[in-house]
């Protein structure tokens, strides 16, 4: 039932209390209402005790006496400042500023408005100020002569690895890592060492920036230095010399008493390099072998593409082995049956550490680290990216690890350009095969124009096409071949023996040329060779001669963007990436990656 409004005069506070009750319809048009309001106000002013609704006159002035600590169960209520020790607060703020993993930008850092990439935020951040400090630190080393390398190591570097190259300068990661790993940088040494365990380092630098030499040179240098002091090796050499002298003097017959005592380093390497794939093992071995010709040490690899007898020979060869480059599973299984394989390791290098310490590889990699620990002097993790997971893993397990990161970490170099083909529009109608073939034709046409006429030989452009699924590699390569484009597919199921052969064209630094066609041939695009691959070829593979990369599928993460685009524009060269953006692709992510590349910003 509706309640009627009171018919007698009432003031505004009375009306307010009435209106609070449900179903009350106020009649506020009465002409006498203002007078009643004034009467009430006058009565209020005349009372001695102020109403609870009236604020104290000094309310704005704050408390005069200090009452920072209030006792009792409600002492912490209605506080205007946090109940935290101000010194602790200041310390925490300072630590947060120094902590590399904190994603929050500092005051002096430019504002970051990359919304789509922030959704995944998969990479650990490197603070702006830290990047500046690194730049200053790098400035001290301009020449390879400034590093404490043995003369024979320098000779091998210049005469073999860099043969025919002039005006060589160490790259940023080499300027930072070589002094630290060689012990020239005393500050780094004291920070990374611990009384009980080995010195541990993280080397993180852009793709194609020379990380392989940055870790190989110090390890080989240390190996050579300690070799001269190795008592077992000295004694073995003495016995061998005596035996040879006896044979030469005709006192013993070589056939009757051959000197076949195994070298003390047989199956006892001093340096181990762990890599995720056979292809990468092959590549690191190539660099190491070129150094070993001059430095004289024995380097071998073990990976699943080798026959068991070959693996046996590489590890248990009578001449011994100083360095083993291996995939973790194979090495761990050898160490299971012969634990002494890891008993003399001084340097353990984990290349592509973000892969080898992720969930799938981590148990086996860490088991190798643990078994090698007693003799280990340096543990070196190497990576082109520091995912947040790796960052946390290292911070927890190796809190004293010294992090060597370059100023441009996680940034794709500006010399690599990214073009976007909107495949959702005509004439492609979301058909990426057609768009990919079109992109390759454009590359071929541009190259032909660049070559000019009247040449007897033309350059062949090597293009890597990245897809996300292995099934897609064959499918795309088949389509391209149907359009008379030279294309090969490479994925995990390709016979391992063929991997090296297929990759060779793309990893070779030699110019690839063919005789200039004089008449139109069946091969519509003679000057382009395409390799359709999954991520198998995105990690560590040194494709110096590749200028073009096509991202057929949009990479799932910014880490994949960095690694895939990192196959072009290596070691200061120019490169071009073309991403095919279809209807279902995250165009906002692509746009942000493109903008970051243009601005020279690190991906997140
Ligand atoms: N100081 C240097 N000057 C010129 N070239 C160099 C120098 N250091 C290394 N290189 C060459 O640069 C190329 C790339 O080096 P490397 O494969 O070590 O790169 P990376 O940093 O390991 O790349 P990724 O992260 O992709 O594995 C190699 O061909 C190597 O010979």
CATH topology value of the largest domain: Rossmann fold
CATH class of the largest domain: Alpha Beta
Average predicted confidence as pLDDT: 81
**SS field, number of helical segments:** 21
- Number of β-strand runs: 15
> Which structural class best describes the helix and strand composition?
alpha/beta
Helix content: 40-55%
Q: Which architecture of the largest domain per CATH? A: 3-Layer(aba) Sandwich
Q: Give the termini distance in whole angstroms.
A: 65 Å
Major β-sheet strand ordering: 3-4-2-5-6-1-7
How can the largest sheet be summarized?
Answer: 7 strands, parallel
The low-confidence parts are 1-36
Sum up the overall morphology in one term.
globular
The CATH superfamily title of the largest domain: P-loop containing nucleotide triphosphate hydrolases
- Structurally, the number of domains stands at 2
Bound molecules: adenosine-5'-triphosphate
Radius of gyration based on Cα positions: 35 Å
Question: Strand fraction band?
Answer: 5-15%
Region (Disordered): 39-115
InterPro entries: DEAD/DEAH_box_helicase_dom, Helicase_ATP-bd, Helicase_C-like, P-loop_NTPase
Domain Helicase C-terminal: 452-604
Catalytic activity: ATP + H2O = ADP + phosphate + H(+)
């Amino acid at each position: 039932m509706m309640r009627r409004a009171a018919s007698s005069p009432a003031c505004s506070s009375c009306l307010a209390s009435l209106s609070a009750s449900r179903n009350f319809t106020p009649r506020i048009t009465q002409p006498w209402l203002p007078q009643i309001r004034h009467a009430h106000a006058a009565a209020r002013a005349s009372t001695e005790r102020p109403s609870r609704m009236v604020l104290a006159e000094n309310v704005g002035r704050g408390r005069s006496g200090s009452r920072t600590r209030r006792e009792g169960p409600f002492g912490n209520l209605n506080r205007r400042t946090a109940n935290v020790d101000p010194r602790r607060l200041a310390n925490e703020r300072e630590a947060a500023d120094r902590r590399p993993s904190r994603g929050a930008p500092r005051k002096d850092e430019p504002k970051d408005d990359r919304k789509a990439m922030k959704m995944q935020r998969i990479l650990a951040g490197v603070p702006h100020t830290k990047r500046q400090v690194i730049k200053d630190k790098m400035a001290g080393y301009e020449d390879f002569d400034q590093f404490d390398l043995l003369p024979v190591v320098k000779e091998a570097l210049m005469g073999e690895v860099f043969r025919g190259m002039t005006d060589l300068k160490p790259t940023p990661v080499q300027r930072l890592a070589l002094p630290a790993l060689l012990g020239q940088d005393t500050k780094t040494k004291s920070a990374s060492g611990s009384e009980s365990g080995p010195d541990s380092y993280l080397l993180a630098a852009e793709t194609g920036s020379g990380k392989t030499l940055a870790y190989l040179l110090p390890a080989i240098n240390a190996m050579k230095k300690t070799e001269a002091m190795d008592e077992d090796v000295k004694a073995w050499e003495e016995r061998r010399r005596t035996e040879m002298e006896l044979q030469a003097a005709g006192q013993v017959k070589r056939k009757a008493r051959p000197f076949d005592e195994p070298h003390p380093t047989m199956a006892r390497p001093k340096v181990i390099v762990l890599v995720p794939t056979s292809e990468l093992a092959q590549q690191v071995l190539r660099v190491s072998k070129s150094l070993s010709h001059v430095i004289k040490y024995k380097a071998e690899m073990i990976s699943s593409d080798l026959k068991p007898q070959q693996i046996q020979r590489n590890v248990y060869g009578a001449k011994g082995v100083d360095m083993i480059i291996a995939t973790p599973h194979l090495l761990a299984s050898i160490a299971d049956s012969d634990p002494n394989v890891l008993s003399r390791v001084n340097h353990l290098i984990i290349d592509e550490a973000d892969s080898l310490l992720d969930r799938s590889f981590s148990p086996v990699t860490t088991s190798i680290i643990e078994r090698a620990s007693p003799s280990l002097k340096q543990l070196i993790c190497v990576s082109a990216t520091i995912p947040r997971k790796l960052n946390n893993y290292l911070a927890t397990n190796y809190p004293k690890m010294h992090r060597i990161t370059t100023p441009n970490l996680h940034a794709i170099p500006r010399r690599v350009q990214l073009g976007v083909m909107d495949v959702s529009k005509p004439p492609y109608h979301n058909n990426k095969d057609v768009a990919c073939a079109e992109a390759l034709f454009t590359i071929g046409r541009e190259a032909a124009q660049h070559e000019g006429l009247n040449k007897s030989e033309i350059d062949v452009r090597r293009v890597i096409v990245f897809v996300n699924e292995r099934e897609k590699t064959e499918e795309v390569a088949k389509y391209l071949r149907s359009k008379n484009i030279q294309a090969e597919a490479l994925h995990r199921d390709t016979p391992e023996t063929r991997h090296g052969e297929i990759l060779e064209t793309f990893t070779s630094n030699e110019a690839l040329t063919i005789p200039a066609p004089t008449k139109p041939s069946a091969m519509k695009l003679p000057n382009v060779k395409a390799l359709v691959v999954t991520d198998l070829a995105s990690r560590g593979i040194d494709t110096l001669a590749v200028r073009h990369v096509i991202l057929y599928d949009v990479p799932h993460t910014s880490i994949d963007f960095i690694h895939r685009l990192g196959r072009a524009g290596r070691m200061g060269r120019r490169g071009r990436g073309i991403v095919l953006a279809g209807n279902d692709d995250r165009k906002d992510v692509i746009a942000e990656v493109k903008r970051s590349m243009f601005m020279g910003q690190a991906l997140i």
